[in-house]
Amino acid sequence: MADVIAIDGPGGSGKGTVASRLASELGWHLLDSGALYRVVGLIALRSGIGFDDIASVAEAARKADIGFKYAGATPSASPIRVFVDGIDETDAIRSAGMEQPASRVAAIPAVRDALFATQQSFRRPPGLVADGRDMGTVVFPDARLKIFLTASVEARARRRFEQLKDRGASGSLRAPSGSGHDNAAGSRDAELAAIRASTEVRDERDRTRPVSPLMPAPDAVTIDSTEMSIDDVMAAVMVLVQERGLGC
Ligand code: C5P
């Protein structure tokens, strides 16, 4: 069985970036498990399936035709594009509006069951870096290294805000045209507050759901990235990788 490095944690902790850089560094495969839940949320929204209609959401998860394509020559090279029924839906699933739907469908046990085998199929030589909420606790409990990456809710909301702004993923993140500086600053504060509130709702749902809640595995190493740059986090992770003799 190929080795797995599990990187779990709440949104905005930097785990996606760290997982992708680590996979590139080691030349390993990469699993962005959150993308699978985002796809199911997208399908439910587009098909008009209510999130309380558990049987229909689970059926959609079982039938979903999800594909990942890699831009580079090796599977670990990012960016990864996500296809649903052969159509590139990467931008749609990455939009801010998909966070709550993803978290809603992820709380349904039958959806998690439906995506389990797909996630495990990413485990191939020479190794896998798996990013999510339950990689170390449920999907790859025998991972050779488990990292729980976290950060304060303020830091995570701020990073999320910058990320969405850079991507232009949410039109509402931009100040209305013609607005003065004060309006722009006020609009920024309001957007940040909205992202923080949404982050807290998602965290609470992810942490308290009965199945696969967001929590560190007992044998995970917790890294708090609140005061760290991504380079700092990468350096700390590489020390752990080398200590365990992984990727040599
Ligand atoms: O990581 P990302 O923000 O893309 O995840 C979106 C949502 O998918 C999370 O809020 C969480 O509810 C769910 N998720 C999960 N288990 C995973 C990965 C993501 O429940 N392994």
Layout of secondary structure:
Elements: E1 3-8, H1 15-26, E2 29-32, H2 33-47, H3 54-63, E3 66-70, E4 80-84, E5 87-88, H4 90-94, H5 99-106, H6 109-120, E6 127-132, H7 135-139, E7 145-150, H8 153-167, H9 181-208, E8 221-224, H10 230-243
Parallel strand pairs: 1-6, 1-7, 2-6, 7-8
Antiparallel strand pairs: 3-4, 4-5
Helix pairs in contact: 1-10, 2-3, 2-5, 2-6, 3-6, 5-9, 8-9
The structure holds cytidine-5'-monophosphate.
Task: Name the helix and strand elements from N-terminus to C-terminus, one letter apiece.
Answer: EHEHHEEEHHHEHEHHEH
Structural class: alpha/beta
Morphology: globular
* Average pLDDT rating: 90
Task: Please give the count of helices.
Answer: 10
Query: The biggest beta sheet, please?
Result: 5 strands, parallel
> What is the beta-strand fraction?
15-25%
Extended strand count: 8
Bound heterogens, unique: cytidine-5'-monophosphate
Low-confidence runs: 170-180
Order of adjacent strands in the largest pleated sheet: 2-6-1-7-8
Radius of gyration: 18 Å
- How far do the termini sit from each other? 16 Å
Residues in helices, as a percent range = 40-55%
